[in-house]
Amino acid sequence: MDLDRVVDPFETDPNEADSDGDGWLDGAEVEAGTNPLDPTESPRAVCGNGVIEVGEQCDDGNASNGDACLNSCLLAYCGDGYLWRGVEDCDDGAANSDAVEVGCGSGCVYRAACGDANGDGVVTAADAVEVAVAAVGTASACRYSSCDVNGDGRVTVQDAALLLHFTEGAETAAALDCTLKVTVALDSASAVERLIGRVQYAAAGSSFVGEGALVDCKSAGPDVALAAFRNDPAVHSLTADVTFSVPVVGPADLFLCRFVHDRPVEDPVAPEDFRFTLVSAEAAGERPIRLNIHF
After folding, report:
1. What residue numbers bound the domain in which 220 lies?
2. pTM for the full model?
3. Which pLDDT tens digit goes with each residue over 95-136?
4. Are residues 281 and 205 in the same domain?
């Protein structure tokens, strides 16, 4: 604005701070929002000046997105798409998900590749040593999602040997599978024709591989006519609808799904961490239906 209400030789409007476009204010002009003598104006917040002002959650005075305060003067959080150094392992924004084998989990914790026991991004003989150390009970950074390379739910010297063979070229990457195979089985001698149920897995601390209808599940026997699976990691629930071409009589495995077993080696997941709820079933005969979950 122009406090003196006088147009300088090059300006055309006393109400504009710089109406001639020369980049200079005349001697009595100030920018809007910076005139302390005008009670109708409020100070304009400036993100990055180190002072928390109206509309800002924080202001640390720097232009870094790698700390607690983003350069937009908003507080950093898991899911904002910026790596908070020293706090987060990763942050892929909306792509963070617990339903991935390799990538950034919903807690901004990186899910390592199977076999990368020391977390350096590559699989070498040093990883085989790390797995061997964990297998004999010595303190280790191993997690099942990177060290249980044969996917049997345990970390043993067999995993270390398999990993060493892989680094020497004696095994292919297809031989490494750190996922746990969670199997739903029919215990009773019932003749089941169709089964609909849900697996609740919040206590297991991770998720099945894949989301929605793309979850990695398959039938365990040859007599399946139709099978549909849906995984919802947000509520830790997997729904299964399996129809058999001929009635299946227990005991028999019905279907299995691959699970990201992302726990430290000293804290293994157990079948009791998965709870199967039978929604409906079609069965021949009157025998009760009993199911179990095993690895």
Report:
1. 180-294
2. 0.62
3. 887 666 556 877 887 665 899 998 887 789 999 999 999 999
4. yes
